[in-house]
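pinning this so it doesn't scroll away 📌
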Amino acid sequence: MTSAPHPPRPVLEVTGLTVRHGPRRRRRTVLDGVSLSVAPGETLGLIGETGSGKSTLARAVLGLVPVSAGTVVVDGEDVTGHDERRWRALRRRGVVQYVFQDPLRSLDPDLTVEESLTEPLLVRGVPRTEAAARARRFLDRVHLTTALLGRLPGELSGGQRQRVAVARALVTEPRLVILDEPVSALDSANRVRVLDILGELRADGVALVFISHDLGSVAGTADRVGVLYRGELVETGTAHAVVNRPGHVYTRLLVGSAPTLRGAPADRAERDRLRALLHA
């Protein structure tokens, strides 16, 4: 009798993650005991309103904010206590990448598209000819023409810039990509293009964390959804389960306010009732 195959090791494991800000007497808890994991080829959507702790979670995973308690393991490596030197080495290996909401924050305005795509490869010692070839390949992956290689970010449309930012994140062939509101600033056509690209990455085994305040965008892309409310992960489940059988009051309010998910939005009286329960 053959034993069942072991499930793949998660690319990201967060356990009991707590982040507090401010001086000791006025310290504020931004994240409170959050635990989650993401497997290879899986997309986890993180939903929550502004101030819920979504971006703080991403920054904690990337070593950009100090962790007060808990652990963060990326690709089997406990990075919780990494100093800047060890984080720099991890980033140079390209294991984890981050895509900002505003691509102008992640693209140097003085570098051409080709220079932006080849820079992280050259830093790792990849020969220039190979780096240039890979830049062209990954630009094609995000459905952009190589005619854009010589352009600066300011010469691109918002949708083109965001797809270049995604290509730059992918060019190092990372194990984990964190996307912070990657489509919120895009029009509907470009939003669909970027979401389609994210869907295609599953086949490559890339683990994705898709952060958004828009449950509609995440529900159509993510395998699982986690709901953050006031720094706590109040609900997790498959996208289908969270949309169709929301358990937490806050999740029910999110679903009821999104007409594209379950027909017409909940009426005002029902939304007011849910808000009253939420703040009771």
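📌 and the second one:
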Amino acid sequence: MNAAKDDQSPIEAKLVDSPKKESVAKSRGAVFAILFLVTGVLGIPLLWMNDKFSHAERIFWSIIVTLYTAALIYMAYAVCMWSYHQIFGA
């Protein structure tokens, strides 16, 4: 065999230019959906990695999402305590 052919891989991978699409992580609407509908406060790093938000917006939305998540946790706690009192009559 030829030495030059032995060094080459039988399968060559080539990168293909994909059309310029905005990734979901860089979309403002997708970040809001993830923050408010899916992850709550766990999505804040995604907010801070997104270049489409200014520094002031990042701080504002981080505070809002933190308060929103705290309210949801409190409501879940209140429902659990109400259920407990209904079941055990305490």
